[in-house]
Write a structure and sequence with these properties.
Helix content: under 10%
Distance between the termini: 40 Å
Structural class: mainly beta
Shape: globular
Radius of gyration: 13 Å
Number of strands: 11
Length: 124
Amino acid sequence: QERLVESGGGLVQAGGSLRLSCVASGRTFSSYNMGWFRQAPGKEREFVAAISLSGANTRYTDSVKGRFTISRDNAKNTAYLQMSSLKPEDTAVYFCAAKYGGILSQVSDRYDYWGQGTQVTVSS
């Protein structure tokens, strides 16, 4: 069982940067692919990025490629989302999620555990 807690959200101006963190409390963090999703008011939850067990493979939605970087530190049971060149359309609640084994996925239903979310607001 993995319990996930996100942090690092906040208010930032367009063009700025934030780093989100997701700390897992379970003992098998390295057995999970990690993903980041976001949900803006009035919109459905959207895939943002995912990273494989060791961090060797990553995947991003087109709208964040070149601006966001997902990473993980298995020794710290932590996944990260480094967000740069932020745009107002990035404003959303960001969730981290864990998917046991298998391959990377951008489908939210494939993930087993979810954090509570952290708010990111980008002003113009």
